[in-house]
Design brief:
The complex is a heterotrimer of chains A (325), B (428) and C (196). With 325 residues, chain A is an alpha/beta fold. Chain A has 2 domains: 144 residues, Aspartate/ornithine carbamoyltransferase (Rossmann fold, 3-Layer(aba) Sandwich), CATH 3.40.50.1370; 157 residues, 3-Layer(aba) Sandwich (Rossmann fold). Helices cover 36% and strands 14% of the residues of chain A. Chain B is α/β, with parallel strands linked by helices and 428 residues long. Chain B has 2 domains: 100 residues, Urease, subunit C, domain 1 (Roll), CATH 2.30.40.10; 309 residues, Metal-dependent hydrolases (TIM Barrel, Alpha-Beta Barrel). Helix content of chain B is 28%, strand content 22%. Chain B contains 11 helices and 19 strands. In chain B, the strands form 4 sheets. In chain B, strands 1, 2, 3, 4, 5, 16, 17, 18 and 19 form a 9-stranded mixed β-sheet that branches. Chain B has a 5-stranded parallel β-sheet with strand order 9-10-13-14-15. Chain B has a 3-stranded parallel β-sheet with strand order 6-7-8. In chain C, helix 2 packs across helix 3. With 196 residues, chain C is α/β, with parallel strands linked by helices. Chain C has 5 helices and 10 strands; from the N terminus they run H-E-H-E-H-E-E-H-E-E-E-H-E-E-E. Chain C is 32% helix and 27% strand. Chain C has one domain: Rossmann fold, CATH 3.40.50. Classes of the chains: A alpha/beta (325), B alpha/beta (428), C alpha/beta (196). Chains in contact: A-B, A-C. Chains A and B meet through helix 4 of A and helix 5 of B. Chain A: Keywords: Pyrimidine biosynthesis, Transferase. Chain A: One of its GO terms (cellular component) is cytosol. Chain A: One of its GO terms (biological process) is 'de novo' UMP biosynthetic process. Chain A: Catalyzes the condensation of carbamoyl phosphate and aspartate to form carbamoyl aspartate and inorganic phosphate, the committed step in the de novo pyrimidine nucleotide biosynthesis pathway. Chain A: This is Aspartate carbamoyltransferase.
């Protein structure tokens, strides 16, 4: 059995629902005077971040600490990694200190998969975002947020997102969030539509379990949740789109566009937002926007994943794709 | 040098015959030849081919002796049945002067496992800006006739045109590494279904095809010949087929790995499958095999690219591109071309010996197996089946994509001008 | 998880020690004892330990309401993440922890469980309570006490003391979960795969 979480595509429907249900219970811990559980006492988790991502690291760190794990933070900048030490050596060095799990963020797609399958280390590997490949805990927290808002906090327990219509807008090509969400939302029964200028849709997207549209306005009216992906300004220089103004006119979400969405529909963003580009301040600050809930939910989801992978003598989450040979 | 009688060998896969080597040449081919005064090699129905010729080998010396040297690379070549290899110019320093090519040439001669024919760089430092001294390299002891910036594309159309024109003066050929640089910035693997899923930078087929299209038109315009390195896409095949139908003097090579492997393997993120040009799709593999069979693609070339372990034992993006190939090439060709019925052994001899020798002007190589010819020969046990074990490689590097894979065929003997370089699978 | 066949086999071998009317009677008795010892049960909060302790707590709350005429706060306390044997099993699915609105600070918390055995579950429950608030006092009510304590823990209210051997099993079935009310005493069978 696998002890890793590398890709959202590895999760079965039942695995995903178990994680979401577990996260609901974890969320209740946040409402208590003592926001801490003894569950991972004596276990050591290292947050191995080769890429700057203060948000994700803090979220994992909060989850680890609430479960009483011992936490080691390792950031590549200023370390031996910047002096040329390899991923393999870094990971082996950390494992020699006795870690039970490695939470890894890496700029290279597939780095967590290599770490988990190359025999370099024995620790469990949790992917905290790799290149433009996957970010499974982000997809889980997004699905958790959708289930709470669109199905209900208690009503959602044990249920998936069958029939919910989700639209992802923005830089699909470079987005690990998009890939993870497409995989997980499809597993959970949702209907996913990607909206982007054709330059930001990957060649080969036709095999993904989703629809692709170049027109945001025609999609919004049939959407239960719209997720805006960050569009980096430097993409302009590589001719992915002409100007910031043109991008936001065609693909940005403003108040007028939001008004076309059904009344119950929500607006999501994995953060950090580029206000004025993919989202206007009016939308970002509206009560339909779940950005801060997503941050809160991220801690609960990561607690659930850590508990289910590390809380027992073997993991409770099964995997299909990343099985060790 | 004494006589050697190879008894009962299927010459080019035909009926068993005896082949008598006397000194450096083949003395006689026939049946029931006398063994008197000769050392006898019982071929037992193994296939005898002319010594293989590789138009595309990276020997890494000078500069990267940690991955391969002329000695280890030529020993690997002899193990794989090769009697001549063309050494690519992307060494440190680059083989862009008469001095460097002569050094590589001389090292090959001294070691004696395999003739080494250096390839000269087209441009100084492979930088694509200024023509290297192509004439001086040709006139040197190395007698360079093939020029390539392999590893990099001669992407500037004017430089490419001038190079094509210039080498006409001495019958040279430019071997193009077809890769449009802007279209492949950040490229990590074939662009398609798998790259979309894995989130690895896409390497579009058009980046190769657009350069090939341009270069065959340039070759036509200036009336020169051009050789296309490691052609890897179905579209490239179509362009070369069209160019040949117009009478353009173009030749093309395909690597063994592009005849067998696809980008599905990249799902493992194992950098042993990282190579330039990248592994493509099943459809491309089919087109390449057919093109090699019908002669659109002229030759098989290994693109033997040794890398030290640490350059592959890492994450995909950080890994070096390339695979070793000299010691597995013939087995892969047997599996993909012979056992599929696309080529017979005479066809293999043509694609792996005669034509590459002709393109590179390797004198004395790629000749028929008949009396009076140089005794450059390879004996292959085609009935053999075995898993590839890199630990047994003669190459200094182990970056093979075939580890643990069962492949057919095994070279048992190689003779370079009548001298055995490989005997019963062991280097002499 | 038992197969249906194993379950039927077990139930045919096992002997009922409490039937539905007995269970109703002992719960009524416990309710009266709580009122008496808590001097009217003004500040009592009942917390059931999932799964069956929660239903017992709800039944006790109903009986307390009958006796006192007031609604008694009732909730659930999942102790999974406080267990001391987490690393001996795969992670378990979590059950609901549901603390009544006014909390437990300064109240008399009565923990309710079906069977008191080693005492480890109650130890975990006390740890869990500690993270939730500071009760005035904590008491324990169980339907069955089968002995064999491994920790210095005792129940304040016991439905039935049932002396058992370690080879025996005690199984509580409740209508809400199992379709009927009964307590079964059986004999542990060891399968070729190891102890059940």
């Amino acid at each position: 059995m696998q002890r890793h979480l590398i890709s959202a595509a590895d999760l079965t429907r039942d695995d995903a629902v178990l994680i979401l249900d577990t996260a609901e219970e974890m969320a209740r811990v946040a409402d208590r005077p003592i926001k801490k559980l003894p569950t991972l006492r004596g276990r050591t988790v290292v947050n191995l971040f080769f890429e700057d991502s203060t948000r994700t690291r803090i979220s994992f760190e909060a989850a680890e600490k609430r479960l009483s794990a011992d936490v080691i933070n390792f950031t590549a900048k200023g370390s031996s990694v910047s002096k040329g030490e390899s991923l393999k050596d870094t990971a082996q060095t950390l494992e020699a200190m006795g870690v039970d799990a490695v939470v890894i963020r890496h700029g290279a797609s597939g780095a967590p998969y290599r770490l988990a399958t190359s025999g370099w280390i024995d620790a469990a590997v949790i992917n905290a975002g790799d290149g433009t490949h996957q970010h499974p805990t982000q997809a889980l927290l997004d699905a958790f947020t959708m289930r709470r808002r669109l199905v209900g906090r208690d009503a959602g327990l044990g249920r998936d997102l069958s029939g919910k219509r989700i639209t992802l807008v923005g830089d699909i090509l470079h987005s690990r969030v998009a890939r993870s969400n497409v995989d997980l939302l499809h597993t959970l029964g949702a209907e996913v539509t990607l909206v982007a200028p054709p330059t930001l849709v990957p060649v080969g997207v036709e095999t993904w379990p989703c629809e692709v549209s170049y027109d945001l306005d025609s999609t919004l009216a049939k959407t239960d949740a719209v997720m805006l992906l960050r569009v980096q300004r430097e993409r302009m220089n590589a001719a992915f789109f002409p100007t910031e103004r043109e991008y936001s006119r065609r693909y940005g979400l403003d108040g007028d566009r939001m008004a076309k969405m059904p009344g119950h529909a929500i607006v999501m963003h994995p953060g950090p937002m580029v206000r004025g580009m993919e989202i206007t301040a009016e939308v970002a600050d509206s009560d339909r926007c779940t950005v801060l809930e997503q941050v809160t939910n991220g801690v609960s989801i990561r607690m659930a994943v850590l508990y289910l992978l590390l809380g027992g003598n073997e993991p409770a989450v099964t995997h299909t794709r990343t099985e060790e040979k | 040098m004494s006589k050697i009688l190879i008894r009962g060998a299927k010459v080019l896969g035909g009926e068993p015959q005896d082949v008598l080597i006397d000194g450096e040449t083949i003395a006689e081919v026939g049946t029931g030849l006398s063994a008197e005064g000769a050392e006898v090699v019982e071929a037992d129905g193994r296939v005898l081919l002319p010594g293989l010729v590789d138009l595309h080998t990276h020997l890494r010396e000078p500069g990267r002796e940690d991955s391969e040297t002329v000695l280890t690379g030529t020993r690997a070549a002899a193990s794989g049945g090769y009697t001549a290899v063309f050494a690519m110019a992307n060494t440190f320093p680059v083989a862009d002067t008469a001095g460097v090519v002569e050094q590589v040439y001389r090292l090959g001669r001294e070691h004696g496992y395999c003739d080494v024919q250096p390839i000269g760089a087209v441009t100084v430092g492979l930088e694509g800006r200024k023509l290297a001294e192509l004439g001086a390299m040709h006139e040197s002891a190395a007698g360079v006739t093939v020029f390539s910036d392999d590893g990099k594309c001669v992407d500037d159309a004017v430089i490419m045109r001038r190079a094509l024109e210039y080498v006409k003066a001495f019958g040279g050929v430019v071997a193009q590494h077809a890769q449009e640089p802007r279209l492949t910035e950040g490229a990590q693997m074939n662009e398609g279904v798998v790259s979309a899923e894995l989130g690895l930078g896409g390497w579009p087929a058009v980046a190769e095809e657009s350069i090939i299209a341009r270069d065959v038109l340039l070759a036509e315009h200036v009336g020169s010949r051009v050789h296309i390195c490691h052609l890897s896409t179905a579209g490239s095949v179509e362009i070369v087929r069209w160019a040949k139908s117009r009478g353009i003097d173009v030749t093309a090579e395909v690597t063994p790995h592009h005849l067998l492997l696809t980008d599905e393997l990249v799902r493992s993120y194992n950098p042993v499958y990282k190579v330039n040009p990248p592994l493509r799709t099943e459809r491309d593999v089919r087109a390449l095999r057919e093109a090699l069979a019908d002669g659109t693609i002229d030759i098989v070339a290994t693109d033997h690219a040794p890398h030290p372990h640490e350059d592959k034992d890492c994450e995909w993006a950080a890994a070096a591109m390339g695979m070793v190939g000299l010691e597995t090439a013939l087995s892969v060709v047997q599996q993909t071309m012979v056992e599929t019925g696309l080529l017979d052994w005479a066809g293999v001899a043509d694609r792996m010996s005669r034509k590459p020798a002709e393109i590179g002007r390797a004198l004395g190589h790629g000749r028929p197996v008949s009396a009076g010819e140089p005794a450059n020969l390879t004996l292959v046990d085609t009935a053999y089946r075995g898993e590839v074990d890199p630990a047994g490689f003669a190459s200094r590097s182990r970056n093979t994509p075939y580890e643990g894979r069962e492949l057919p065929g095994r070279v048992t003997h190689t003779w370079l001008r009548g001298r055995a370089t490989l005997v019963d699978g062991k280097l002499a | 998880m038992d197969t249906e066949q194993q379950k039927q086999q077990y139930e045919s071998d096992a002997r009922p020690v409490l039937e539905a009317p007995d269970i109703a009677r002992v719960l009524t008795r416990i309710a009266h004892e709580i009122v008496e010892r808590a001097k009217g049960a003004d500040d009592v909060v009942l917390l059931g330990i999932p799964t069956r302790g929660v239903y017992l707590a709800q039944r006790l709350a109903a009986k307390l309401q009958e006796i006192t005429g007031r609604a008694i706060p009732v909730g659930s306390l999942d102790i999974t993440m406080y267990r001391d044997d987490l690393r001996m099993h795969p992670p378990r699915a979590l059950a609901r922890t549901d603390i009544p609105g006014d909390g437990i600070d300064g109240r008399l918390v009565v923990l309710v469980d079906d069977v008191l055995f080693s005492g480890r579950t109650i130890r975990a429950a006390l740890d869990a309570l500690n993270d939730i608030g500071r009760p005035r006092a904590v008491q324990l009510a169980v339907l069955v006490d089968r002995g064999h304590r491994e920790l210095p823990i005792r129940a304040d209210y016991v439905g039935k003391n049932l002396p058992t051997s370690l080879r025996e099993t005690v199984k509580v079935q409740l209508a809400e979960e199992d379709g009927r009310d009964t307590v079964l005493l059986g004999v542990k069978r060891t399968s070729p795969d190891g102890p059940q």
